[in-house]
Protein: Polysaccharide biosynthesis protein
Organism: Rhodophyticola porphyridii
Amino acid sequence: MLNFAKSLTRREKKVTLLIVDVVLIPVALVFSFAVQAMPVPPMQTLEFVLPILPYLMALGAVISVVLGVPDIRVSAYEWRGVAKTMAFAIYLAIGAAVLSWLFSVDIPPSLHIDFGITFFLLSAASRVVMYQILLAIYRWDTKRCRVLIYGAGTTGMQLATALKSHETIDPVAFVDDNRALHGLLIAGLPVHAPVRIDTLVAELKVDRVLLAIPSLSQPKQARIARNLQDKGLEVQTLPSFSQLIGEEPLLERLTTLDAHSYLHRPQVTAELEEACSSYCGRSVLISGAGGSIGAELARQVLACAPSRLVLYELSELALYNIEMELRPLNKDRAVEIVPVLGSVTDARQVRQVIQENGVQVVLHAAAYKHVPLVELNPLAGLKNNVLGTHTLAREAADGRVERFVLVSSDKAVRPTSVMGATKRIAELVVQDFASRHPDTAFGIVRFGNVLGSSGSVVPLFQEQVNRGGPVTVTDPNVIRYFMTVREAVHLVLRAGAMARDGEVFLLEMGEPVSVWKLARQVIERAGYTVKDDETPDGDIEIVFTGLRNGEKLQEELTVSGTISATHHPKILFAQEPLLSEIEVASIIRGTREAIASGDARRGRALVARWLRPPMPDEDTRGVGAS
C-alpha cells in the first residue's frame, strides 16, 4: 500500500482528489434531502433533482479546478485549504440553486444552504481522513524515531506541534525543569521532571532527545547534552525562533578575541626598520615554517623582501597552508618562495637545500615543544630538538651561512622536563658552533609562552568554553610570561639581526600572568560567568587537574641571572655558561646511540644531568595549560 501511494505522480494525486470531491456532491445532496423537512417524500423530490445532478457534478469539477482545490496537498491542508474548500462549497450551493431554477425543480432555499454546509464538511473531513490514513500507512511501514523534548516552553510546544505531522518522528513527552508544568498536557503531550528521564526512556522507548531550551546559555545546554549522551541517548539542539528568522545570529556566543587583549600591556607594533637589512635581498631558510612561530617568521621576513624564502617543514599540510597563504602576499614582490618537505635531521637533504638555494640566513624554529608529549616520547624529542639543531647548525657553518638564529624557550632554563632539557642542549650546541665558526653569526632567542600558537592556553580555553566547559587549569598558582605570536617574531628577527657570537637574547615579556586568572578572563569575555562557590549558578566551571610531570609553577628566562640591556628596550642579553667542544660532542654521540638503540631509558638518563632538581619549597611538576 505504501509503495502504491509513493508511486502516484502529482497529477494522479490531483485527479484523485478531484474525483473524491465530485463523488461527494451527490452524497451531500442525498444527505441534505434526508435531513430537510420536505412537503413531499425525499425520494420523490430526488426524482426531479436527478436530471440536474450530472450538470451539478460537472460544474463542481470546473469550480474545483478553477479554485485550485485539488492542488492542495493533504499533508499541507490548513486554514488556507479550508478557506478554498468553503469558497468551493458556496459556489457549488449557488450553482445548485441556479440549476434548480433552470430545470424548474421546486427546492426550498434552505436545502441549498444545507447542501453547501454538508458538502464543505464532507470535503474538509475527507482531506483529514485521507491524511490520517496515509500517515498510518507510513507509520506502519516506516521505523519511527521516538523523541523526548527537553523544554516545554514556547519553542518546545511549537516543535511538538510541528513534529506530530512528521512521517518518521514521533514526539512522546516533554521534560522540563519548571515544577509548575509537571503533570500538565502541552500540545497533547505530558510534561515530566528531568529526574524521570531514565524511566521515560525505558517506558516510552525514546530514541532521541531534542533540546528546545534556546534561552538557556550554551554552556548549560552543553552540560545537559553531555549528561544525556552519557545515558546513551542521541541529543540534538533546536535554535530559538528569533535565530531562525534572523533577528538573532544563528551562531555560538563565543567569538575569538585577539590574543593581545589578554596581555594587559602595550603590544610591540613598531616596524622592523633597520633589522630588515639583515634579511633584505638574502636567501632565508625557515625551519618549521608551517608552525605558529615559523609561519609568522615567514610572513614578516617576506615583508623584508628577501631574494628567496625557503620554507622547510616536516608536515605536508602545514607546508601547503603556509605556501598558499604567502603566494597572494608575494604578488607585488619578486621573492622566490621555495617549499621544502623534509626533516632537519636529514643531513644530506639539509646540505643540498642550503647549497642549491644559496642560503645566507637560517631561522631555526623547528622543534617539538609540547611538554607532556615530549615527556612521553623522549627519543623523538632528542632526535628533533637536539640532533635536528646540530645537523642544521653544522650544515649552516659548513656552508658558510651568514647568520643562524635558534628560536628557544624559557623552559630551557634549569629545565624540569625532557622538552626543556632538549632545548637547553640545543642552545649549548649552537653556542659550541659559534665558538668554532666565526664566519657564521650564531644567535639564540629565548622567550616564554606565545598566545595564539598551537597548543597555547587561550585557544585551548576558548575551545573548552565552546564545548560548555569545564575549563581546566593544572594549578591555581601557575604563572607564565606571555607574548603574542606577532610581537615575539618581531623581536626574534630584531634580536637575530644583532647576533654575532652565540649570544643568548631574552625578550622582555612584562609581568607574569596567572593562568587561572587568564582562564577567568576567557570565560567572561565570551559572555559567560564562572561557576564557583560565590556563583554556584554560573555557566562554566574552572577545574584544577593537578600539575603534570616535568612542568614548573613558574618559568625563568636566564640560567646565570646575569642580564644586560641592548639598544632595544624589549631585547635583553644574558651571559650563560658554555660547554667545551668535547662535552658537546659527547652529548651528541650519546644522543645518537640512544636513538639508534631505541632505548628511551638511556635517552632519559642522557638528559637527566640537565634537569634541575626540585627546590625544597617548590613543586615542579606542572604548568597551567601551556
Remarks:
- Residues 240-261, 613-626 have pLDDT under 50 and may be disordered.
- The chain has 21 helices and 22 strands.
